[in-house]
Amino acid sequence: MSRKLYHGTAWYPELWDESVILHDIAKMREAGINVVRIGEFAWSTMEPTEGAIDVSLFAKVMTRLHAEGIDTVMCTPTATPPIWLTHQHPERLHVDDRGVVMGHGSRQHICTNNKEFRQRAALITEAIASELGRMPGLIGWQLDNEFKAHVAACHCQNCLSLWQEWLKQRYGTIEALNEAWGAAIWSQQYERFEQVPHPGPTPFLHSTSMQTAHRQFSMASIAEFADEQAAIIRRFSDAPVTHNSSVAFHVDNERLFERLDFASFDTYASAENYPAYLINCDLFRNYKPGRGYWLMETSPSNSGSIQGASVPHPQGYVAAEAAAAYALGADAFCYWHWRQHRSGCEQPHGSVLSAWGKPTIGWTNALEVEEARRVLEPLLLGSQPAVAETALVYSDRAKAFMATEPLKGMNYRGLMTGFYGRLLAMGIHRDVVPENVELEGRKLLLTPFLPYVSETFIGRAMAFAERGGVWIIGPFTGGRTEEHTIQTDAALGKLEQLAGVEAVFSYPLDGSGAIGEAFGMKAPLGMWGTVFETHGASSVGTLVDGLTPGLSFLTEHRVGDGLIVMLGAMPMGEEGDAMLRAMLDHYASCAGVTLRTDATSGTLVAPRVESDGRELWVIVNMDGRGGTVTIPDGTVDALTGEPVAAGSLAVERYAYRVVRLREEE
């Protein structure tokens, strides 16, 4: 990829005639679009009958785009298998957890583990890559589309055999599986692997061990499919390979991107829920450290399908999204989609052009994004996002655990976004990181809602704390084994000894009247909680009411030069939010976190480091209310070179500013 910031869109030339294609390309140039994603749903166009593969339309389109200075990301179309692959072949179709076989239509209706599908997917991928892989203007590949967005694990007979084989590889013997799962409960032992079912319909519930393992099997299988496609493409093309994923899908993104070249994601978060947008930027930046991520899909106005449409983004918000994404490390900001579909199920979805070729309300947004890209590009290409001193661990494996055991509606993604939103509102620059993150250079480590904590991670986190870091554990962290069973040596296993505490009770706090006191304030405690006696640790937060008064829910323990902090229960409501912010503020100070600002809530500060070591702040108002941030002495406007007075700098509604801080003397 060349050194530029990309402003892109998804486009479906296979749906339109020659005159529309030429019109669309001309309008793309007018809007400043410099990259287009094509081909993701076009299998039936490329291969209308089995074996008759022809990708010449896409070669022609790519040639025309390149002639107009527009690059291409080519997709494999495997999310939409054609009718000839599925008709009269129910064994190839996806089966949900109720045993319902998906019919042909929509997308993701096939079992991605089906042998015949994999063979045909490999053939179409090879044909596309061999024909188009070295064409001018091709800068990247996208595999499939939104793996496991509409479906989760498949429960077909083929997947059953693969699931049983996966279990055999994992456990070796059926006796080891029975022991690991604690299968003697309710007489659930198995005599051989061939007896282990999918976790489908039962009179009550399957065991946690089976359900979570099945989710992990499915996530591993789809990552292997991605690996297969990527390997085929690399035989014919040097362009980097990605997939457009999401925190909402049934995948393990850390594993998925492990063998891909760069990370990309989709998000359709509303303007009111801008933290749910920004958490993606701070997370996907860290799946492939040192490589810019792509925002592969977001709406230029509103999301929608024939079942309804969202409220369109306020004027100016899309440009703020783009400025924030670029500032936080994105190489590309792309829309779904360019021209409104005239048919299908997503006709109401926002676009840049209407089905009849006229600008929509998204057109002005696209022009504003292009202006931001053009202005920001020189500064951002000469700098990199600053590595955050604060790391919030996000785990799709933890999401799988909590999907199995949601405990009265504990939604992992929502809980993590809430934790993230507090850091964001407090002006603490943060990286959202996968479990295998390196902790060098970090000062504050947060691991909330991580039911299972591996020995490997514990070792890295302990070394981090002993070097002077502060590790905040919990809530709902460490109470489950790798097999999704309850710890038997202690409620939180090894973590208790390391943290200098003993868990006395672990129980649901909602409705129990539990009140905690910490940092001079009181708040209700809720969700599933663990309360402690201290054995070397100091109590920071104590229950003052409820079933277990006098016990601790928040402790700290000195280890080496740092601290381990145990948060056993979740403070709730407005009082709880204030308590959590006080906790984060206190331990950020204890850890010596300096990458933070006093920007008003709703205004983002993205610190970046230029090649000569100077620091840039990209300041973006995200809430539409405008905001301020305190600027130190010696700051200049990086866009104009004019001095900026020390003190409060105002940023208008959905506007952005870029300032360069004075070098340290």
Automatic annotation (TrEMBL):
Pfam family name, one: Glyco_hydro_42
Q: What class of enzyme is it?
A: hydrolase
Domain Glycoside hydrolase family 42 N-terminal span(s) in chain numbering: 11-372
Q: Which GO terms describe its cellular component?
A: beta-galactosidase complex
One GO process term, biological-process aspect: galactose metabolic process
Q: Which CDD domains match?
A: A4_beta-galactosidase_middle_domain
Residues reported in the UniProt entry to bind substrate = 107, 145
Q: Which keywords are on file for this protein?
A: Glycosidase, Hydrolase, Metal-binding, Zinc
What reaction gets catalysed by this protein?
A: Hydrolysis of terminal non-reducing beta-D-galactose residues in beta-D-galactosides
Q: Where is the Beta-galactosidase trimerisation domain?
A: 388-592
Q: Where is the active site?
A: 146 (proton donor), 297 (nucleophile)
Family statement drawn from the similarity comment of this UniProt entry: Belongs to the glycosyl hydrolase 42 family.
Is Transcription regulation there in the keyword field? no
GO MF term list: beta-galactosidase activity; metal ion binding
- EC numbers for this chain: 3.2.1.23
Q: Which PANTHER family match?
A: BETA-GALACTOSIDASE GANA, BETA-GALACTOSIDASE YESZ
User: RNA-binding as a keyword?
Assistant: no
Where's the Beta-galactosidase C-terminal domain? Answer: 605-661
Give binding positions for Zn(2+): 111, 154, 156, 159
Q: What is this protein called?
A: Beta-galactosidase
Species for this entry: Paenibacillus cellulosilyticus
